[in-house]
Amino acid sequence: MKISTKWLQDYLNLSVDPQQLAEKIERTAVEVDQTYHLSDGLKGLVVGYVNEAKPHPDSDHLNICQVDVGKGEPVQILCGAPNLQAKKKVIVALPGARIANNVKIKRAKMRGEVSEGMICSLQEIGFSDSVVPKEFANGIYFLPDDAQIGSSIFPYLGMDETIIDLDVTPNRADMLSMRGTAYELAAIYDKQLHFKHPHVKEDPTTSINDLLKVEVDQKLAPTYLMRVIKGLTIKSSPLWLQKRLWNAGVRPINNVVDVTNYILLDYGQPLHSFDFDQLAGNQLKVRLAKEGEQLETLDEQQRKLRAGRDIVIADAQGPVALAGTMGGLRTGVTDQTTTVALEAAVFDPSRVRQTARRHNLHSEASMRFERGINPATVAEALDAAAEMIAELGDGQVVAKQLVAAQKPAQAVKVMITLQKINAVLGTQLAADTVTNIFQRLGFEVTEEQGKYSITVPPRRWDIGIPADLIEEIARIYGYDNLPATLPNGELTPGHYTKQQKIIRQVRQLLETAGLDQAISYGLTTTTKAGRFMMEPSEATELSFPMSSDRTTIRMNLLSGLLDDVAYNVARKVKNVDLYEEGRVFYRQPEQERPREVEHVAAAMTGETISGSWHDQVRPVDFFVIKGIVEFLLARLGATNVRFEKANGHEEMHPGRTADIYIQDEFVGFVGEVHPTICAEYHIDRTYVFELDLQKIIDLPNQTEVFQPVSKYPAIKRDIALAVDQATENSKIINYLYAHGGSYLVDVHLFDVYQGKGVLPGKKSLAYELTYQATDTTLSDEVVNADFNHVVDRLQSEFNAIIR
């Protein structure tokens, strides 16, 4: 919101240095982006009068102008502007002048003729293209006839006014208007406001109710008012109005549109003007869009309306405006318009926001509807606009306002005590001081023995609870005046919860294993979100995603990791080892919000050991990533871990994937990504795992206890078993640990063989069993007894043949 200090002077007498004023606003109310004059960096720009203009003999576009700049004899200036006219007052940059971008003007000679300066357009002296009136967009600007020749141009163009650019936060939408800002400054500096209120002169011969009928759904528009102004002449606005608009960053268009924009800036009330003669059936209806409806908006874009979502203003032929966002081209005000129907309303803010985002039509009006409108000044803003349009367009206001809907503006009553105020702020404010602050804010105050009853006017819709009042007191009293105190209370040492400890331990362990941490987006596509899922879940999609790649909350971590792998591979990084710890989001059909679950996942591709003169290349394979999972689970204290051949993971290789169980609880999977998925990501063979970390945290895991290394010798026994090819190694190992005796400390598979000497359909697995005691030297008799016992049981349990 760009605030002109000169405009503010219309409402309160404030003789404060602009820089000090900006600092006070920033300390008390909202942030200030910058404080500036449009004339900053410019000099030597004066009013000139073109006495004569004739074509340059050696140019098809240049003109030789004799320009009076108030120095006696006219000066010769060459100008190529297509709209150049004699007998007009123009902007002249004399030799030595500085124009936009710090360009210095010098005396020049062009095609044999001397030019003693430059006749300037608005853009050349620093005006943005977006605010230059369209009639001067491609040429020079003509100053008013009363401009004094030779004087500075800055007062005529409003370039000498100080502009304070406010960065208004959503909770202070009341400051998105000149009057709202004036209320704030009056409270800060304890000044009296002097607002002018409209007095509309109506034509009693015609009533608006005889001209127009309006039907409103009050859920969509709780307030909807209209005025009609007839007999208008559409023309350019007076310069004072144009100056106020372009200083606020708004392009002047014509006297009707400019007034609606002026009232928007002044009151914070968006208005919309219809060409009354183009309204089919002399009727309007505020409703939701219907299936298949379209609207060509003022920007000449054909827009498909969303049925049941977009609020539209419709006449007998169909939609003529997107409520609170943009009007339709069919009923827009043109040079031929003679009668205007003027709308002032309050629309459903959430629907306006949805429409603005859906159609990418964010505007000053939609921003105000989204953040809030002062319901107490809707009717006054409409009257002020109608009065100005009639005055500037030589028209007449038709009798009466049309009130299709009007929700009464209600003040909010909040109770608070002086004790509470001082306790929160740490102050010793007197009752009179607090009362004065509330009165400066324009609140009605009733105080009795330190108990306040505060009536907050509708213009401050951000205030509704006692905490809001305390904030207002702190702001106006001055944050710098609040006492500074140190926290007082018993200090207790902080500590991590069990879950926090395990999460940090997981990250440390995976980094110890050689993996790098990745952090992926929590939003992805619906397709990617539904892959690698570990339990059935409904997708949770955003209503208004920022892009088509970020539409759905993730239900796995692997999709994001594969994106990271693909990103690296595309940049010639072939060896990628990444992990991610984070949350996924599962939702059942009956649930409104998804359930957050801690997961950990990893993805590896390329080589785990790069080749050298003494080391062989070792590519990543299933056993490498499975070993990392075993290492991680072992260090987390997981017991009874087993890996079983997996089925049902469509995104994983069907023969190289294992499900992971802890104490018969499914906690994840590990294996190779399906080749079709790898092809989709344009990556080579990739191995992954994903674990439900929340389940691992919740399971009764065994605390890792470090014990001294036994000083007694170990005894080893080897055994080779011929078993069916379908028999899993993990089951044999688990069985050996369960039945191998109390002295069995390690089981190691050192050979797998199929071929000569082994029956068809069988495979040979060779194990090394290590026995060791911590308190004595084991004898062969003890070890042999345990060994022979487990061998006998292996033969019966697995139908194994001892080789």
From TrEMBL:
- InterPro entries, A to Z: aa-tRNA-synth_II/BPL/LPL, B3/B4_tRNA-bd, DNA-bd_dom_put_sf, Fdx_antiC-bd, Fdx_antiC-bd_sf, NA-bd_OB-fold, Phe-tRNA-ligase_IIc_bsu, Phe-tRNA-ligase_IIc_bsu_bact
Q: Cofactor: bound how, per the entry note?
A: Binds 2 magnesium ions per tetramer.
Indicate the segments forming the B5 domain, all copies. 409-484
UniProt entry keywords in alphabetical sequence = Aminoacyl-tRNA synthetase, ATP-binding, Cytoplasm, Ligase, Magnesium, Metal-binding, Nucleotide-binding, Protein biosynthesis, RNA-binding, tRNA-binding
Q: Where does this protein reside within or beyond the cell?
A: Cytoplasm
Q: Which GO terms describe its molecular function?
A: ATP binding; catalytic activity, acting on a protein; magnesium ion binding; phenylalanine-tRNA ligase activity; transferase activity; tRNA binding
Output the CDD domains linked to this UniProt entry: PheRS_beta_core, tRNA_bind_bactPheRS
Q: Name one GO biological process term.
A: phenylalanyl-tRNA aminoacylation
| Positions in coiled-coil regions | none
The name this protein goes by in its record: Phenylalanine--tRNA ligase beta subunit
This chain's source organism reads Liquorilactobacillus vini DSM 20605
| Listed HAMAP family | Phe_tRNA_synth_beta1
**Per the record, what is one GO cellular component?**
phenylalanine-tRNA ligase complex
Gene name, Swiss-Prot/TrEMBL: pheT
List of residues binding Mg(2+): D462, D468, E471, E472
Please tell me which top-level EC class this enzyme sits in. ligase
Q: Which PANTHER family match?
A: PHENYLALANINE--TRNA LIGASE BETA SUBUNIT, PHENYLALANYL-TRNA SYNTHETASE BETA CHAIN AND LEUCINE-RICH REPEAT-CONTAINING PROTEIN 47
Which Pfam families does the record associate with it? B3_4, B5, FDX-ACB, tRNA_bind, tRNA_synthFbeta
The subunit field of the Swiss-Prot or TrEMBL record says: Tetramer of two alpha and two beta subunits.
List the catalysed reactions: tRNA(Phe) + L-phenylalanine + ATP = L-phenylalanyl-tRNA(Phe) + AMP + diphosphate + H(+)
- This entry's Enzyme Commission designation comes to 6.1.1.20
